[in-house]
Amino acid sequence: MNKKKWLIGFLLITLVLLMGTGIYLSSVMIGAAAIDEKQLVMPETTEIYSTDGEKLAELFVENREVIDIEDIPQHVIDAFIATEDVRFYEHQGIDPRAILRALYRDIIAGAKVEGGSTITQQLAKNAFLTNDKTLLRKTKEVLIAMGLERKFSKEEILSFYLNQIYFGHGAYGIDSAAETYFNKGVEELTVDEAALLAGIPKAPSHYSPAVDPEKAKARRNTVLAVMERNGFLTAEEMMKYQGKTVPDTIYQSEEQKAFYAYIDMVLKEAEEKAHIRPEEIYRGGYDIVVPMNKEMQLASYQLFQENDYFPKGSDTIEAAFVMLDHQSGGIIAVQGGRNYVRLGLNRVQVKRQPGSVMKPLAVYAPALESQQYHPYSLLKDEQMDFDGYSPRNYNDVYRGEISMVDAITESTNTAAVWLYDQLDRDKTMAFLRDVGLSIDDEGLAVALGGLSEGVTPLELASAYTAFSNHGVKTTPYVIEEIRDRHGEIVYEKTMEETKVLDVQDAWYMTRMLENVVKEGTGTPGETAYPLAGKTGTTSFTEVEGATKDAWFVGFTPKWTGALWMGYDQTTEENYVEGGSAYPTRLFKEILNRTPSDDQLTSGFQPPENVQDLDAPVRVEKIDDLHGKLTFKGSGLINVHLSWTPNQDRRVHYIIYEVRDGTSEEIGRVEGTGEFTVEGVNLFQLHDYMVVPVNPQTNQEGDPSNVASVSIGSLFE
After folding, report:
1. Is the dihedral of CA 358, 359, 363, 367 positive or negative?
2. Helix, strand or coil for residue 554?
3. Active-site pick, 117, 176, 356, 663
4. What pLDDT is recorded for position 27?
5. Where is this region: Disordered (predicted)?
6. Among the four 228, 285, 442, 524, which has the fewest Cβ within 10 Å?
7. pLDDT in tens, 467-525
8. Known active-site residue 300
9. Taking the CB of residue 412, how many other CB atoms lie within 10 A of it?
10. pTM (two decimals)
């Protein structure tokens, strides 16, 4: 009988063990089945860097920088294990001893004062479950924790946990927490700093030193005491670290409103070219390299806030600015508005009426390409009617004829329209398409920028690279490369450039546009940078003298950009006063506030094998012609004529003899202020006149005063 009872007891015990083992194995399997590893892939901060490696901005849903467990110092790990789960390396996901201890302390205290969850359970809850407090949720937590222990090593679980937990103030994971509270990487944390961070996750809003430094310090000291009690610190070390101060503020990088427009263009380009959606950028932990010039980006933003650079009484006037590296096409700075907001109206991509900044693109470059005109060709400059279209010069001054150089410098309207009318319209439109401008208009108003839809500042800056980049138009971009969280390149920009203009003609355009800045409509403001460019305005006809759009588009030896001023909607109350002088000054001041090197300020360098363009000859009126008789010369008696020559010694002079109201050419000289008439008759003396001539255009200047010669002058 005793043997039978013993056998029955043995069988029951065996059955219970088998059932227990089965339940355990089933629990592990159920827990493992509930684990979706995709949920362990945590959202990670995407970082934007300049090409020289400086971090410019961060994009995130959760501010997290995932870090390998090997890069976390041991004393940081010790602080979390001592605080959250001292038997972490001994249990299999749950710790019955910790649960019983917590239950006992809760009963003694009469309230819940201690939790019994392991680090693995906390990971299970954070990654896979909600925060509800039902028995079913707790059961799932235990099962998933057991499954995690079965599926991953202790180091992997610890890595997931330390990168997952929330530390307050938007910081997720230990590395972001180290930066948020101490402005350093996790590898630089001291023991007392690690203890402070280990104490925060229990109640981030309660134990943050930025919220309550005293509570944070007390919590930190408790963590240090727990570390000492569990053998991670000596008593002496504990006391030393407990005496340390705690920070009372968090580290926050400066709000970079200056970068908003640039960041939005990065997101747009990532989606269009790399096929990475914005929401994926915010979660994916990418490293994005951009060609931004941080100094210019900040300078342009700061200057956009200063009303002194905008017309007075126009505090609400808007502006847009973009600058490219014209050799690569990289956008180095962009401002979409004076108070641009994320995902707002980016005005560098809004079409506006370009005014006279279109003249170099629509008229003068195609004219040079036709090989029928050169920079000193004479153009008609007079009031003309073209089948009902009658352009006028802004100052109502007309020369009759004007050189191409002067027409660009002075922004002469009539000459531009006349020349545009002489050109092959198909070829001019083809050139505009080549530089990236889709113009459907066919009328002569195109010459003056009168377009039905307009063009954007970014399009104009890109189009002008055809001049600044020696005839090669480059395509703008904002992303150099994108690397994923594993460091693999997932996108790399490719150079996009188009040869649109002969290098000689591009150089002529550069020199002519440089002259606009030196002595034409582009003179307002000062800059040490060599600068070429064109101004432009469009009129708001409802108000006399009002401007709708004001422009400056120009380039240095390295950068090409456009700056627009105006209103999103021009009305009789909101219009621009002051014209293109304001964007011209602001463009130059942005350059002034951008650090330069000798190469950038040394002047435009002509490409090899091109003919340089001589500076324009300026003819000055002569009003001091004087004549006298002299014995010097090959004749017995001669007439010596003298005058003050033009400062430009390239000017030629035609000498005329005046008799009976008519004049006859008797000689020419170059670069001098004197001429000798050989062998005159004392009894038939005549008057004389000098006319200066521009040798570049063969245009004659105004005649000088008429000089008479008397016999008495022989004895002067």
Report:
1. negative
2. strand
3. 356
4. 43
5. 695-716
6. 442
7. 999 999 999 999 999 999 889 999 999 988 999 999 999 999 999 999 999 999 999 99
8. no
9. 26
10. 0.77
Q: Are 449 and 361 in contact (CB under 8 A)?
A: no
Q: What are the extents of the domains in the chain?
A: 41-63+257-350+471-500+550-609, 65-242, 626-715
Could you please state the CATH topology (level 3) that the domain comprising 41-63+257-350+471-500+550-609 is classified under.
Answer: Beta-lactamase (3.40.710)
Residue with the two structure tokens 């006319």: 691
Tell me: the pLDDT tens digits for 394-444?
A: 889 999 999 999 999 999 999 999 999 999 999 999 999 999 999 989 899
Q: List the catalytic residue out of 84, 149, 193, 269.
A: 84
Q: Which residue has the higher pLDDT, 588 or 281?
A: 588
Catalytic: 84?
A: yes
d(CA 664, CA 655) in angstroms, rounded, equals: 8
The confidence score (pLDDT) of residue 8 equals 60
Q: What is the rounded distance in angstroms from the CA atom of residue 239 to the CA atom of residue 249? A: 24
CATH number of 65-242: 1.10.3810.10
H/E/C letters for each residue in 106-174?
HHHHCCCCCCCCCHHHHHHHHHHCCCCCCHHHHHHHHHHHHHHHHHCCHHHHHHHHHHHCECCCCEECH
pLDDT one-digit tens code per residue, 487-498: 999 999 998 899
Q: Categorize the per-residue pLDDT at 21 as very low, low, confident or very high, splitting at 50, 70 and 90.
A: very low
Q: Residue 99 corresponds to which tokens in the numbers above?
A: 């649960």
Residue 20: exposure state from Cβ atoms within 10 A (0-12, 13-18, ≥19): exposed
Top-level class of domain 626-715 = mainly beta
- Phi/psi for 455 (5° steps) reads -140, 160
Predicted local distance difference test score (pLDDT) of residue 210: 87
- CA-CA distance, 533 to 410, in Å (whole number)? 12
